[in-house]
Amino acid sequence: VSAAFWEHLRSLGLQDFPCGLGSWNKSRFDARTSPCGGQLRLEADPAGQEEAMPLGEENPEVLLELLSDPHSPWALPPDCSPQDQHLREMAVLAPELVRGSCIFQVLRSLRIVGKGVEEVDEGLLQFQQLEELILSANQISRITSANLPRTLKVLELCCNAVADLQELCTQPPPELQHLGLGYNRLCGPSQDTYLTADFWPNLVSLDLSFNNLMDLLELVSQLSSLQKLRILVLQGNPLALIHTYRGFLVDNLPKLSILDDIHIGPDERRRFHGLARQPELIRSEARVVVSIGEIKGVPDPSARQQLEVGSEAPVITYSYCVTYKF
Question: Which UniProt keywords apply (predicted)?
Answer without folding.
Answer: Leucine-rich repeat, Repeat
